[in-house]
């Protein structure tokens, strides 16, 4: 499953960044919890931007 999640996150990332909203959409579409995404995003060298909670500028 991680490969499918990674593929989806990489496809939505632009210039090594992805929005919080896109991460949550991936989780919803693949029916997985977004809680493990932080580690996966770090491994993929993708940064979150436009965080809906204000955690990431």
Top keywords for this entry?
57 residues; mainly alpha; two-stranded parallel sheet; 3 helices; 2 strands; globular
Description:
This protein has one domain. By secondary structure, it is mainly α. The model has no long low-confidence stretch (mean pLDDT 86). The longest helix has 11 residues. Helix 1 runs antiparallel to helix 2. The chain has a two-stranded parallel sheet.
Please list the strands of the largest sheet in the order they lie side by side: 1-2
Kindly estimate the percentage of residues that lie in beta strands according to DSSP.
Answer: 5-15%
Q: What characterizes the major β-sheet?
A: 2 strands, parallel
**Total domains, how many?**
1
Shape: globular
Record field, number of beta strands: 2
Radius of gyration: 10 Å
Individual helix count = 3
Q: Please mark out the parts with pLDDT under 50 across 5 or more consecutive residues, or reply none.
A: none
- Spatial gap, N to C terminus: 29 Å
Rounded mean pLDDT is 86
Helix-and-strand structural type: mainly alpha
Helix content: 40-55%
Order of helices and strands: HEHHE
